[in-house]
Amino acid sequence: MRVERAAGGVVVRERNGAREVLLIDDQYGKVSFPKGHLEPGESWEQAALREVQEETGVIARIAGDIGRVEYVIERGGEPVRKQVRLFLMVAEDGSEPVHQAEEVNGAYFLPWDEARRRHDERGYANWRFALQKADALLAWRVGRLEEAWRALGPDTPWDHLVAAWRDAEPVTRKLVDACREELAVTFPELRVPEPRSLHLPREVAHDALRAAIESTLLKPEASEIDVQNLCLEAVHHNLPMVCISPRHVPIAKRAVPGSGVRVCTVIGFPHGTQTVNAMRQEALEAIAAGADEIDMVGPIGALAEGDVWAYAQAVRAVVEVARLRFPSVPVKVILETSALGPDAVIKGALVSVAVGADFVKTSTGYHKAGARPADVTLMALAVAGSAGVKASGGIRTPAAARNLLRFGADRLGTSAALKLLDEA
């Protein structure tokens, strides 16, 4: 099916201490947000900025990603897949709206509450989540939570983490609710987990650290001897699981028989760029080789540009393969949280669990950052106890491990298992 793409923005400004929103009256008598087609060679963001300026005369800058809607229209007797993305944008000082495009009958800023009422009354149903999402993103931005909370590593002193979380918690919960509403509108056939009360940080039992460890060796240069030694180490120290590359699954299975150590492997690793059929085949081969669990890398690029439908398709394909075996093989979905905005982390977790994943996981260890408490909380609040959370990447101290467990992790992927235990 042919695809048409458009982009635009929910543009806000502060005027006399109050927040205002830019709306347009379109040619169909609807209240909407400025948006229009991507031109050849443009990015989503470039098109959004240009369209806002062309339709309203307002110059703005991008501050976040509101979301994406998709639907089918008919053009020339043929079906066309329409993809529309909206960004959160902030108007530059002095920009005043003057409608400039033929399809726009009016452009104006309204106070926030009045804009919400007008959009609820005369707006398009598939954007009814947009202002709620914008409100949550603005609260995240005003609170500087990317720097003050999300950037904190797991080795941050406990008192500092707790204080930062107390400041971030109301906004984090607001953002999770907004993402739920977004998916309810844009992907209504998806059954996202029901929201449940979850108190964080939580108490962690003394033996929780050992029980959570997945001793990991995923370096491409790892030898068969390295894998055998990892498995012997896990057996000797009574670790629950090893995580190794697909070609090493048979070696690992032979090294741990009767020990209780389970073998996990990865597919779509490390970037999630394989086709759906390739991931399905990788999963089939891993299960046939004896893998007890699968960690799959979701298509990171799809999630980064808001394509939750493609993301769901990839995860569902692997889950379906895992369920061919009885009992089914648990599937963990690696989001690569450091490549995503906080709302994309939430949506990735919600979509993954909705299509059957058993866990969501932070990182591959191959991106710019590993597990962070903030991302673990985003995932834990999203899945709401209906699935587990695995933190991985850069976990090298007992303090880091326990901090992540307290903020919602159930499993820990680490290449430093014995170091955690020796110092615990």
UniProtKB/TrEMBL annotation:
Q: EC number(s) on record? A: 4.1.2.4
What reactions does this protein catalyze?
A: 2-deoxy-D-ribose 5-phosphate = D-glyceraldehyde 3-phosphate + acetaldehyde
* Keywords of the record: Cytoplasm, Hydrolase, Lyase, Schiff base
Q: Which SUPFAM superfamilies match?
A: Aldolase, Nudix
The pathway is:
Carbohydrate degradation; 2-deoxy-D-ribose 1-phosphate degradation; D-glyceraldehyde 3-phosphate and acetaldehyde from 2-deoxy-alpha-D-ribose 1-phosphate: step 2/2
Q: Which domain of life is it from?
A: Bacteria
Q: Which family does it belong to?
A: Belongs to the DeoC/FbaB aldolase family. DeoC type 1 subfamily.
Listed NCBIfam families: deoC (TIGR00126)
**What HAMAP family does the entry give?**
DeoC_type1
- Purpose: Catalyzes a reversible aldol reaction between acetaldehyde and D-glyceraldehyde 3-phosphate to generate 2-deoxy-D-ribose 5-phosphate.
Please report the name of this protein according to its UniProt entry.
Answer: Deoxyribose-phosphate aldolase
Q: Which species is the source of this protein?
A: Alicyclobacillus acidocaldarius subsp. acidocaldarius (strain ATCC 27009 / DSM 446 / BCRC 14685 / JCM 5260 / KCTC 1825 / NBRC 15652 / NCIMB 11725 / NRRL B-14509 / 104-IA) (Bacillus acidocaldarius)
